[in-house]
Specification:
The chain is built from six helices and seven strands; from the N terminus they run ββαβαβαβββααα. By secondary structure, the protein is an alpha/beta fold. The protein has a single domain, classed as Vaccinia Virus protein VP39 (Rossmann fold, 3-Layer(aba) Sandwich), CATH 3.40.50. The chain has a seven-stranded mixed sheet, sandwiched between helices. The protein starts with a strand and ends with a helix.
């Protein structure tokens, strides 16, 4: 049994095709979003908590860690927001450094292509996502046949991610769906990890 920690889990886009002899713990801060994750993956343990703090206290309990720290402050779209200035959220680099030096298992940290030069060189860029890892992930083209995500409707995004959020209310479906890692990328990376363990 391989124990997996899925941090900043959202509704679990990266996790959709994960299977095998695995046990998954998902950590999501937003209670409503964590509830959707639990509906979609009832066999996973879902913890409503701050993923950054959870990682520090529990990292050594898992064989593989997937972390997707908040990305809006790093995104190239941030340069278009001249009306709202924010510092880049440095939890991204804190977690990369921490995992590189203190974690013995396999890890991947995911984020978006940034508007600035990376402070730590990424391992690979897949589609619109940047990954830092302590194992080799080869470059690969994915043929998702999608339009520009920023122009896709909620229905388009649901079809793209193969998920139906129509019964859920009180959440920003557009933001949730745009932030998801496509499930084929999630499967591709987990398959590499499972083949190495």
């Amino acid at each position: 049994m391989i124990k997996i920690l899925n941090l900043y889990a959202g509704i679990g886009g990266n996790r959709k095709l994960w299977d095998g002899d695995i046990e998954i713990t998902a950590v999501e801060y937003d209670k409503k979003i964590a509830g959707i994750y639990k509906d979609l993956y009832p066999g996973d343990e879902v913890i409503v908590a701050d993923a950054h703090h959870y990682l520090l206290k529990h990292f050594n309990e898992y064989d593989f860690i997937w972390s997707s720290p908040p990305c809006p402050s790093h995104s190239r779209l941030r340069m278009m927001r001249k009306d709202k200035f924010v510092y880049p959220d440095m939890r991204l680099y804190q977690e990369i450094i921490f995992l590189q030096y203190f974690y013995k298992g396999k890890f991947v940290v995911e984020n978006v292509i940034s508007y600035y030069g990376y402070l730590i060189k990424p391992s690979v860029i897949l589609d619109r996502h940047v990954f830092w890892s302590n194992f080799y992930i080869s470059e690969r083209k994915f043929n998702f046949n999608r339009k520009d995500l920023s122009k896709m409707t909620v229905k388009d995004l649901e079809e793209y991610h193969n998920v139906d959020l129509s019964k859920y209310r009180g959440i920003d479906k557009t933001e949730i769906l745009r932030n998801m890692v496509h499930y084929e990328i999630g499967k591709y990376i987990l398959d590499i990890v499972l083949n190495e363990m």
